[in-house]
């Protein structure tokens, strides 16, 4: 996981595990965090990272169950976590509850 500041906002960059690259068809996932504040970016990145890790685990379980079948999985990018999107959490409430992080 890496955070990059591209001037207008921070981006979360997650490397796709080697065994999942054929499913995701990419080596990295870039997610805009839609903020210029590094503290908010860190909070949002942790929430998104936990959802991505869960998705990686789910894909690995599918692979182990259907390892001999020629089944092609499709990813639901609409279900991907987004800071201001369709996730089941309220960003503003979560960010107010978490104290400011002191980063070096």
Strand content: 5-15%
How many runs of DSSP E, i.e. beta strands?
Answer: 3
What is the subunit organization of this protein?
Answer: single chain
Number of helices: 3
Which percent range fits the helix content?
25-40%
Q: Rg from C-alpha positions?
A: 16 Å
Q: Could you say which structural class the secondary elements and strand pairing correspond to?
A: alpha+beta
What is the overall pLDDT average? 77
Query: Stretches where pLDDT falls below 50 for ≥5 residues?
Result: none
Could you give the distance between the termini?
17 Å
Rough shape? elongated
The structural domain count equals 1
Could you describe the 3D structure shown?
The structure is a single chain. The chain has a 3-stranded antiparallel sheet, with helices on one face. The protein contains 3 helices and 3 strands. The chain has one domain (2-97). Helices cover 38% and strands 14% of the residues. It starts with a strand and ends in a 7-residue tail after the last helix.
């Amino acid at each position: 996981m890496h955070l990059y500041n591209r001037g207008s906002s921070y981006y979360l960059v997650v490397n796709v595990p080697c065994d999942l690259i054929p499913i995701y068809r990419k080596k990295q996932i870039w997610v805009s965090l839609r903020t210029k504040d590094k503290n908010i970016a860190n909070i949002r990145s942790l929430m998104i990272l936990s959802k991505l890790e869960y998705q990686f685990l789910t894909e690995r379980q599918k692979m182990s169950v259907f390892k001999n079948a020629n089944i092609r999985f499709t990813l639901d990018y609409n279900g991907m976590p987004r800071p201001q999107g369709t996730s089941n959490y309220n960003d503003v409430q979560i960010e107010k509850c978490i104290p400011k992080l002191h980063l070096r």
